[in-house]
Amino acid sequence: MFKAIHTLLLPLAICLAVSIASPWAQESAAPPPPEAEAPVGLPNVMDVRVTVTPERARLVIDLAGKTEFALVSLSGPDRLAVDVRAATFTVPEPNVEVSEQGVISAYQVEQAGSERVRTTLTLSAPAQVQQAYVLDAFEDQPARLVVDIIPATAAEFAANVAKDAEASGAADLPVADSSTPAGGSELPIATRPLVVIDPGHGGIDSGAEAPGGIKEKDIVLAFALKLQQLLVDSGRFDVALTREDDTYLRLEERVALARTNKADIFISIHADSFQQPDIRGASVYTRDENASDVLDKVLADSENKSDVIAGFAMPQMAPEVVDILLDLMRREMRHQSYTLAESIVHQLEPSVALRRFPLRQADFFVLQAPDVPSVLVELGFLSNANDMANLMQGEWQGRTAEALARGISSYFDNLTPPQ
Ligand code: ZN
């Protein structure tokens, strides 16, 4: 399980890495030492939101810029403190009672030092951080710290409190190696790759629709959340979703999220329809501007129309004159994308009905990032009765998500250079 209740510095924030292991692991909210200098260039905390379900909670902190953060478990009463290195905060509601039933009952935002804004989550049951990551600003969205919280046993919570108290005590001592995270036995968290999962469609764009009102956008979102959970639970990846609810995103926004956060891979999830109801099975696509199969072309065209459906113009395609570097990058990415697709198909094969020739190419706009290996997974087709039955079935979803997670893992296994 993800042992995150200490100072975390995730890959997304690496460029900011300074010696944060010590000051950021302290639990005390003591006033800053008198010699502390006025913070220069630190971002503000602009908003704090908590969403709670019976199974989990998510804290989102909007930031004026990327910054460092630390997580601390506190007891008596049981709390999780999330410290952000920031100048100040302008949160509309700094004290909130959470009305939904779940692990968090209230939260409070306060200035806890000259460079520290603390959000304290009051826990109604023992809980722990499942994952935490910082997203760059993109489009009109600010930079964000996202913290996912899941229930824990009382023993797990107590252990985290003890570990954090110990780390906070140790922080008074000179720290020889600032790259060692508090709780030294862990692997350096900064080495975890970032997987961006893109549940297709959303909002005004429902994607394919099956009789009975079942919509592709809902099926792929549920599946993406399942896959995210599996990947996060493996402890090996940071996982971000392009959308986590029924919102509409333009295709280029999906690509931009992966690119600005320097994702290691991008996986778009779909379950489309075909005119021919007998076509069925899962398949994995990589991008090729000259898609050969006429059905693949139809499929890609209908996906690329997503932006038109929602009333936006088609995104600007890259100009004809492409700079050589970009071209080289694309070739490399095409190769890596293909390797990723192969790896996923290889794991899907024994578990799931596949389309004939499951490794396919088509001109999907959403796969166009020149610097992020990208694949599009068609889980199956809403136009086929067998696929439809599978897609609605929890057991099938779980089995398929596990196969995908294995495919992703083995792709990264093979990337690691031999020792
Ligand atoms: Zn689709």
Shape: elongated
Main sheet overview: 6 strands, antiparallel
H/E element string? Answer: EEEEEEEEEEHEEEHEHEEHHHEEHH
Structural class estimated from helices and strands: alpha+beta
Taking the alpha carbons of the first and last residues, their distance comes to: 26 Å
Low-confidence stretches: 1-39, 170-190, 311-322
CATH uppermost class of the largest domain:
Alpha Beta
- Radius of gyration, CA atoms, in whole angstroms: 23 Å
Number of domains: 2
Number of strands: 18
| Helix count from the secondary structure assignment | 8
Identify the CATH homologous superfamily of the largest domain. Zn-dependent exopeptidases
The helix content, as a percent range, equals 25-40%
Percentage beta strand: 25-35%
Determine the mean pLDDT: 78
Using the 3D structure, state the CATH architecture of the largest domain: 3-Layer(aba) Sandwich
Which hetero compounds are present in the coordinates? zinc ion
With strands numbered from the N-terminus, the spatial order across the biggest sheet is 1-4-5-8-7-6
CATH topology name of the largest domain: Aminopeptidase
Could you characterize the architecture of this molecule?
The chain is α+β, with helices and mostly antiparallel strands and 419 residues long. The protein has 2 domains: 18-167, Immunoglobulin-like (Sandwich); 194-413, Zn-dependent exopeptidases (Aminopeptidase, 3-Layer(aba) Sandwich). The protein is built from 8 helices and 18 strands. It has helices spanning 154-170, 216-233, 251-260, 294-304, 306-309, 324-348, 385-391, 394-415; strands at 7-8, 45-52, 57-63, 69-74, 79-85, 95-97, 104-113, 116-123, 127-135, 143-151, 194-199, 209-210, 214-215, 238-241, 265-270, 282-287, 354-362, 374-378. The strands form 4 sheets. Strands 1-4-5-8-7-6 form a 6-stranded antiparallel beta sheet. It has a 6-stranded mixed beta sheet with strand order 14-11-15-18-16-17, with helices on both faces. Residues 200-201, 207, 216, 270, 272, 303 line the site of zinc ion (ZN). The site of zinc ion (ZN) has 7 residues, from loops.
